[in-house]
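In keeping with the milestone schedule agreed at the kick-off meeting, the structural modelling team has produced records for the first pair of proteins. Each record is given below as a sequence line and a structure-token line. The laboratory manager (R.T.) confirmed that both were archived under the project's standard naming scheme.
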Amino acid sequence: MASTQIPPSISIILPTYNGAAYIRESLDSCLNQSFQDFELIVVVDGSTDDTEGILHSFSDRRLRILKQNNQGLPAALNAGFAQARGRFLSWTSDDNIYTSEAMAVMWQYLQEHPQAAMVCTDCLIIDELGRTTSYNNHTWACFLYRAEAAALAGPYRPEFALVEDVDFFLRLRHYAGPIDRIPRPYYKYRQHNINLSARQGAKRQFVSLRLHYDLVMRGVEQLDLKELFWDRLSMSALYRDHQSMDTIVQFAREQKLPFVEELVSRRNLLKTPAGWLWNRLIIAVRGQRARLQGGVLRLTNRWRSKTS
């Protein structure tokens, strides 16, 4: 007999691997949404800590638990979305926190803006203790997208682990339509010493380079390749990751890019103490400029919201 259960409007996927330290707070933030018509699918990706015990302490009917051997974040996401029934989709991490209005605000936005394939919001950056340390108005951390847009974009690609989210969102924007932004924070993104991005920041640079090169070759992105290689080489140098720097140069050689020798010269400079210091100062100035621009944008948005 066919099921008569009405599918939820939203499916939220929460992949986790040994996330017991923060997952209860993350689960609470999902289950306490003011928008109630959703399902929460937690994919336990081979955890060996107390994650499952914490999950089974919840009795909410909207919570579903999937288990698999450890396969990495892209595979966990694909497994979760394969079971999702919602017309709108999102995912979060086991150490991050939604505000209670996040889903309601994004769902309403997509109802009112049918041309948008996805909507995202600004977020607050918090530390291990949940204290706010900064504000981010450019990352895709808190988001909701249409299921039909996801079908056009395709699955998360394991070969681009560490930047699988960027890869997916760029393909979604290219194949499905615009990504809009709500310039207010509805998410708390936790930065700490044990999270994935902090541990593997240097490795991420080469994976990111391969990703954007792939998307340029597919026609999904239009980028200046020389500037792309320059930027990733500079970021690898900041981490003093000489192996990644050499790998970037080798990749450029394999692709027979015309600026390889310039890239070699820059790599050699950045390996020196003076070159490293010069590079660090350039990146610091660039970051400060971005923060100032973000502050001006936040003040402008506050002024507009008060006068509208």
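The second protein of the pair:
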Amino acid sequence: MPGRDRSDLEAVAAAIGLSDATVEALAKEHGRARLIRERTYIHLTVQTLEAGDQRLATRELDLVAGPNFVLSVHDGPVEALDLFAEHFHGDTLLGRLNAGSFLAALGDSVATTWFERIEEIEREIDHLDETAMRGPEGTGFLDEVLELRRRIAGVRRTLAPHREAFSQLARPDFELDERLGKPWPGLNDRLERAIDAAETARELLVGSFDLYLGRAAQRTNEVMKALTIVSSVLLPSVVLAGIMGMNFKLPFFEDTRNFWLVIGAMVALAATILLVARSRRWI
């Protein structure tokens, strides 16, 4: 049911036999995953990752599973529920699932949306790699890295608390009622793979930053190489110009034709340095 109106929750609770504590828990969001075991039903709270803008969007989804019913409570649309409905649309065998299996199927849809959000982050990291190879300008690249780092950290913080909730579903003593059935223990494996995928995305982001630093260092080396070559080419000319500009008289300075001789020497020295640099593949 969309929304957390208390009167609606009380009406549903009276129909399916939920306790006042459960109604109180469903009426508000708690901000993290948890699992509450009642005598005849399970109350599982999960955090979904919704598609949206660049920022991480989470939504709390409460699932209550008991004999012959599964109740979902949430604020706003939930992509996992839409995915579940689309997947099982027209499936006449869905009614054969017991409450535990139905709860596991919903949890698996939630895990699928986790992987989709992580894949979106990985695609953005691939784009960052291309930007780094082209030679990013300004601080835009670093701003994107910081934003992705925050999103990955948010994903990991969202998923980690599910370990405590999902691990209980795999315990052998969790068959509270034969009509409820045993929830699928594979949810815990899906959770661990999602957390590993988030960690892999973080490592990929670190690799993108290293690529950026390497590219920046390469560009710096190219600039320094160009400046060094220019300085080396001009240095002999500067030395000759300094010597020829000394304030004393020699017969050499009396002949104006020697001016062109000095110019020729400057050009020859510059050309020699360029040839040596080229032969050694410095340029």
